[in-house]
Amino acid sequence: MKQFGIVWKHEFLNYVKTKSFIGITAGFALLFVIVLSLPSFIDLSGVIPGLSGSAAETESMETAPGGEETTGIGGVVSSGYEGTIYLYDAGGSLNVEFLTAIFPSARIVEVSSEEELKHSVERGDEALAEAAKVLGEEEDENAGGPRCGFAVDSLTGYRYYVKNRSFNDSVEGTFAEGLSYLYRRSEVEKLGADSGAVEQIYGFSPISETIVLGKDSISNFLYTYLLIFVLYFMVLLYGNSVAVSVAQEKSNRAMEVLVTSTSSNSLIFGKVLAGAAAGFVQTGVMIGAALVSYQINREAWGGMLDFVFHIPGAVLLAFAMFGLFGYILYAFCYGVLGALVSKTEDVSRNAGPVMFLFIAAFLLTMFNLQNSDGIVMKVLSFIPFTSPYGMFVRVAMGNVAFWEIALSFLLLAGTIWVVATVGAKIYRMGTLMYGNPIKLSKAFKMSREKTSNME
Question: What is the pTM of this model?
Answer without folding.
Answer: 0.62
